[in-house]
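Your task
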Amino acid sequence: MVDAVLVLPLLVLVAAAVIQVAVVVHVRAALVSAAAEGARASALSGASAGAAERRVQSLVAGTIAGATVRDVDTRMSTLDGLPVVEVRIEATLPLLGLLGPAVLEVDGHALREGWS
């Protein structure tokens, strides 16, 4: 009985840590995918300025990742002389404890279509 009292709290702590890591990895993967898709949507020829944000919001709506999104920023830039669209998503991480970073930023890039 004493063994269970000593081992059970450690086992619960390890299980909670594994669940926490799995949730953070899932949220990061969903946000990276949404940022890339948002950049692709905004990079299309003739796309409006808000296309990226609408695409990101539609992809993460109703998911764990959607509840964490704080800001979606889209900007046009140049990378190695090529015009690109960059989408940056800022989100809060769903942490169980106070350990780890509280903010997550992910980027997505896409080559802009059209004639320059």
